[in-house]
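Worked example 3 (structure in, sequence out).
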């Protein structure tokens, strides 16, 4: 079919995800309309009318594709012909091992590339409710600051609890960094609950002195402030731990650190004064979150304070805690594995509204959503990238990798950056170095990361090759290639 005879895909939101999605649709030979509300309607964070504006830092984080998960995602996006990565590379500024960009040059280049593409049109204006019924293939990429009209439309369609407006994130720890000589598995009162075993939580015990020192550290630590427009979104079950500590030194012992119903397996005759519980966070069982530990402590303070907890002295954090304005879906419940809304499959979601976090992750999900939407329009099926790739691992987390909480507290699905805890574990990692000596500590961790990224590259390469037919234009190619991007296989 010729592009002119195809109905367009509609992309709502021209941020990181929407821009990448639209580019991918157009590069597959399918017409696409981007609906971006700026400058007709502003958000509280964007300052320009450019597409793909970076609202805060100018960094795409580490570009190390062998030892860092986001670096691996960069690699995969470049392999798949990402517009965001191509323009990021073209507008790079010096930043050591990170990929940082000249923010204006970058977003102007993304805007210019989309404006120049013959299959892309850009309409400025808010989509203030659910998209018109006539739009049969839509990508919603309206981000953490989705306008209220559209958010209300989505909420009406999917239900009250489907959309969150704030992150309330408790820190998430790589399970293999927890000292199980000190911590132990047990559910409170050994309750099994639905799907549980009675030993589902990891428990870290504190003596009275350790508890008092921990409270002192919380009270004296530096906190981040809410932005003026964010308000103070505290609600029951979601108070930051430092606010609880300010209300009284014993408050945490009656809340998330209560020691009742638990017996220290390593020291059964001594009752812990307080206990920190960690709950499994992903289906792979590689990540555990600190139950009830949402916090506004500055990132720099968090790791040091949480490592005061016995069992967590060497904890490695997949993400630190935080609370900030962020509109996002309860995706594991609402989206199918092709990122479509189960309640209305013509709507596909991409970017931070799906519950990923960060510029790169948002653009990556946009890339995949764009390709899926184009393939659907062309009557083709696009298989998902393998879970062993960074892109596959990220999408898996969004659509199904997370474990829903069964007990107290705020809704458990929380936005997440790409990290190695989302990758399926790998067997057969070298345990000795080139000198034949046994690898220990950091060296072992580096070997594991390198094995995971090598596996991911191989899998992504094979996937890109196997789907080449689904993502190349149906009719004469729309444009030439983009500077700095490798072809899609
Ligand atoms: C204050 C703040 C600071 C952040 N800092 C960082 C950071 O330093 N590093 C980082 O990696 N991530 C940061 N993030 C997260 C960042 O927003 C996302 O990583 C990324 O921008 C999300 O990409 P996106 O495409 O999903 O959304 P966006 O880039 O926000 O794009 C969404 C677009 O949709 C438009 N839109 C919204 N509603 C409608 C509508 N109804 N109709 C039409 N258009 C609409 C918006 O105008 C916007 O252009 C920050 C987020 C916020 C809110």
């Amino acid at each position: 079919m010729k592009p002119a005879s195809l109905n367009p895909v509609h992309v709502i939101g021209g941020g990181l995800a929407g821009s990448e999605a639209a580019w991918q649709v157009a590069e597959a030979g399918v017409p696409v309309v981007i609906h971006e509300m700026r400058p007709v309607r502003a958000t509280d964070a964007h300052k320009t009318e450019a597409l793909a504006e970076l609202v805060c830092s100018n960094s795409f984080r580490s570009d190390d594709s062998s030892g860092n998960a986001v670096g691996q995602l960069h690699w995969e996006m470049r392999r798949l012909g990402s517009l965001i990565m191509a323009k990021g590379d073209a507008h790079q500024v010096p930043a050591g091992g990170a990929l940082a960009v000249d923010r204006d040059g970058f977003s102007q280049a993304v805007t210019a590339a989309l404006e120049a593409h013959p299959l892309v049109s850009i309409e400025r204006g808010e989509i203030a409710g659910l998209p018109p019924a006539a739009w049969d293939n839509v990508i919603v990429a309206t981000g953490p600051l989705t306008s209220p009209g559209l958010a209300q439309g989505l909420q009406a369609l999917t239900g009250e609890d489907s959309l969150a407006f704030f992150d309330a994130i408790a820190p998430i720890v790589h399970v293999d960094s927890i000292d199980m000589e000190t911590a132990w598995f047990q559910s409170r009162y050994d309750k099994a609950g639905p799907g549980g075993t009675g030993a589902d939580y990891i428990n870290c015990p504190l003596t009275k002195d350790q508890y008092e020192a921990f409270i002192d550290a919380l009270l004296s630590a530096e906190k981040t402030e809410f932005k003026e427009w964010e308000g103070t979104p505290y609600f029951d079950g979601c108070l930051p731990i430092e606010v609880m500590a300010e209300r009284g030194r014993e408050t945490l012992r009656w809340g998330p650190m209560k020691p009742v119903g638990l017996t220290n397996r390593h020291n059964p005759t001594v009752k812990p004064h307080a206990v920190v519980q960690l709950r499994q966070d992903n289906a792979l069982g590689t990540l555990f979150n600190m139950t009830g530990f949402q916090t506004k402590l500055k990132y720099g303070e968090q790791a040091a304070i949480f490592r005061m907890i016995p069992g967590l002295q060497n904890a490695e954090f997949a993400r630190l805690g935080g609370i900030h304005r962020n509109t996002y879906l309860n995706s594991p419940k609402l989206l199918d594995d092709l990122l479509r809304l189960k309640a209305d499959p013509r709507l596909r979601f991409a970017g931070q509204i799906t519950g990923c976090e960060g510029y790169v992750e948002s653009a990556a999900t946009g890339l995949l959503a764009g390709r899926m939407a184009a393939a659907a329009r062309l009557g083709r099926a696009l298989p998902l990238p393998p879970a062993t790739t960074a892109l596959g691992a990220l999408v898996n987390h969004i659509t199904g990798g997370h474990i829903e909480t069964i007990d107290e507290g705020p809704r458990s699905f929380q936005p997440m950056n790409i990290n190695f805890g989302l990758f399926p574990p790998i067997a057969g990692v070298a345990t000795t170095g080139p000198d034949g000596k046994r690898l220990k500590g950091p060296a072992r961790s580096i070997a594991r990361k390198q094995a995971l990224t090598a596996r991911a590259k191989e899998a992504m390469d094979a996937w890109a090759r196997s789907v080449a037919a689904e993502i190349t234009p149906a009719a004469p190619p729309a444009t030439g290639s983009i500077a700095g991007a490798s072809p899609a296989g």
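Notes: Residues 12-18, 35-38, 43, 45-46, 55-57, 126-127, 141-147, 150, 351-353, 358-359, 362 surround flavin-adenine dinucleotide (CB under 6 Å). The two ends are 22 Å apart (CA to CA).
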